[in-house]
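[scheduler] slot 2 assigned
[scheduler] job type: sequence-to-structure, two independent chains
[scheduler] chain ordering preserved from manifest
[runner] begin chain α
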Amino acid sequence: MTRVIPLRITIRDCFVLILLLIFNTIHVTDMANNNMDLHSKESKLKEESGDKGVNFSGNDEYLKSCPFVDQEVPDCAALNYPCITCDRSIDCVYGSFCNYTCVVKPKIICNGSKTFNKTAMCRFCYQTEKWEHRCDQKANCNSLASPTKFYLTNCTVSDEIVCLGKRRFLKKIRCSWTAGTRWGTALILALTLGGFGADRFYLGHWQEGIGKLFSFGGLGVWTLVDALLIGIHHLGPADGSLYI
């Protein structure tokens, strides 16, 4: 009969085993991190030594939007901001057309002279028309408030516009934004399911929607009033946005 020898494991053996597991885990993690660092360094080197062979520094960001190498070469006079810089004396007559002296920025490849004139209206960038610049829209104001609310935001002149001063400026614009609420959908809900408060729920007016639901649309009166208010755009979304 085979004799079974009992296996004895001491606390010391357990402690050594735990230490071995910890060291093995640390070793595997270090190897994985080293491999990741190696791959990231290789990819970074590939990007820096790509076919174009151009490294963009902080002052050369404009090259991402301008022709420099291995691209179709345009005429220098056809380039716009940020590929060129245009200067004009501020003593020009406002509203009149005058010549701006434009110079192509370094490292940009183009055909023709890199110094040329452009004819544009004498005005500062903040005096451009609203379709000639784009502004950052904010969604934290009430577009349906009376009187109309305005807020300050940053605006940037379009690249093809030539003007005096800074191309990015502050402007006070009307609070006008939308969250995707459709006027037609709200009106249909008011005319069909308005007695159950569906139009109010759709617009985000939850308390009024619950009131209409349990009062059967105010016995029909509230339903007709809301349909009229939505029809004339007096009742809008609860978040203060506009219909689309």
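[runner] end chain α
[runner] begin chain β
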Amino acid sequence: MKLSRVLNRQHIDFMFKKHWLVQGKRVPIDTGVEDVLREKGIPVEDALEFIKEKPGPRERINIVGPYEPQLPLDETHPDYKTRPCLTLTNKTVLLEGIAQAQVLTKTIIAENKLPNKIEELAEITVPKAVHEGVKKAILSSNVFDCEQQKLPKIKDPVRPAYNFPRILGITDRRRNQIITNKLLQLIERCSDFELTQTRYALNDVECKTVFDKDDDLIQFQDVSNILVTSNSPLKHDIMNEKNIPFVEIPDLYPIKHTVTLPPEHFYDEKSIYPIEFNVSRKHPHTTWLHFNRTEVNNIYETPVTDTQIYGRALTHAFTVASAYAKELHGEEVQELPEPIYVNCIQTDGQKYHFGVFELNTLNVDGIEGTKNVWYCKNDVKLYDRSCYFNGMPVLENYNPKVYGYINAFYNS
């Protein structure tokens, strides 16, 4: 249809153009306010002159906002220290894995051995309905959840340049969160009411410990995906150490024990335990650690090995135990009056690594004298496969022993 004057009268474009012409030709009306203000001695300034930039230094205005401005990372920063601190975070692993973790924490290892109390509790028969609940938790985390995110790219070593189609599905972080929370909820439902009233379950709490090791300042920064605390310190029966073949602290020569620990100049020398000591249920009991392959890696971008996964659990348990010990006895404590025990469970959603850390000393120089102890049982598979097969959800080779150990850790 041709745009004519008759049609343009009904069109909003015509009204807008006419209105713009009228408003563009408006002349300010002199109201006489300026004369009245001058008579009263009130200065009047032209608005165009007022907005002109004045010469000289500008005055900084502090704008109140939701976040404090970040300080520049230089020598004027309040956390800057000339002495570097070698740092291990929850996103990285040690190059030599469990062997390097032994040297750093001055720990001997009892492989495939857990305290007697836990082994006895793990053998208790559990009703069939409980195992059905565990199976539903596995399927919920691997099959039934609705998250659809881009999963890591598939790589073929034979054809490294071939691009496979991207797969949408459930991320490893989401999978671990679902199965861990559901298992803990199931155990709390099956445990005595009086026992559950003595426990707290905290999500994603940070721990940090700072210590000296052979003239090097080292800090471990870690996150407990779930930290179960109790109203009394965890106790385990002292095992007959003569019958246990301990793995002694190895010699890493020619590698130094601080390899792959990057130096950091901005840090605080105080250790951090996440719970204030005026809380009744403040004592660490069991810490859950998630191993997400998309998040945890070497600083040199090489694949994470099994021995590095084992070492990650050891350093994590040491971080929680030592941070608690320093909060309990002071930052300068060395030899502890009595051992501190912490249960640790590390999982990628399928494999479980169980450990009990016995902290006896924070004097980790050398390999002589009092040592810490790590009781562990690694690579316990919960299932072999959980996925859709021919349009049906499938769970293969469910292992009931895993729930037995988790239940024993909670009730120990």
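[runner] end chain β
[qc] chain β: The mean pLDDT is 87.
[scheduler] slot 2 released
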